[in-house]
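tool=predict chain=A
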Amino acid sequence: MGKAKKEIVLDANYDDSFDEILLDGVASVKKNEIQQMPINKLIPFSNHPFKVLDDENMAELVDSIRERGILSPVVVRPKGNLYELISGHRRTHAARAAGLTEIPVVVRDMSDEEATILMVDANIQREEILPSERAHSLKMKIEALNNLYKHGELKGKRSRDLAGEEAGLSGRQVQRYLNLNDLHAGFLDRVDDGRMQMTLGLEIASMRPEVQQWLYEYADMGAIISSTLIKKLKSVEETEGLDKEVIGIIIHEDDIKPKARKITISERKLNKYFSSSYSISDMESVIFSLLDQWKIDTEGETN
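tool=predict ok
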């Protein structure tokens, strides 16, 4: 029976909730395992998929570190003459902003695959993770899992199921995020900032990169990209193939269709010609009779 996870209460300084698991409990880390290390010897994890932003939360973290220092050591591994961060990118960034030159670290020797899995798990539980960050990090974790378990011994589970466990995602949800990695960067930005629904982004992601590029160029010029449009484009792609010109024609189809004309005649104007004894149908009959005669007269003049 697995050991039950204990509740972890965090403050602004305690940045990575997974640290407690990663370190097997901060309290259990021996004092001599924690060392002060110059910040200039720390480098970000290679292809770190999580953005470190100078936002309001970062400002709070900087203030906390200025006041109390770093309460929980960051986790690193040796990388040549330097040390690569596995957990604690935001705290390290905040420490630099706060003017610290050294921070507490715990050094762990890990393979690339082990470090990748732990780096992803240390961050993926955050509530504010962007779809692009989740997509990229899950892809990194699955690649690491596949390298670690080359013979398919993934605890009896598919890699995508195993990859989503820490984030509480099903294998199907993980696959959706993996597919998002195929989306054009411009559209992915729109998914991140809420201008585009992830569902629509996934529909676009299944299209050829060239088609996505052309489509984005039109979107950047103000074209409205909808699920209906994508379905129409995919249908044409399957039968005739798409290029930029064809996409443009399909996008602007509604603009070149003749608009239906509608004429409204006010009752006040009609009363000038018809008495109250005329019904609506009576008035329509007279009007169309006169129009028929006008048409005959007009055609007669042109012949």
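The two ends are 98 Å apart (CA to CA). DSSP finds 15 helices and five strands in the chain.
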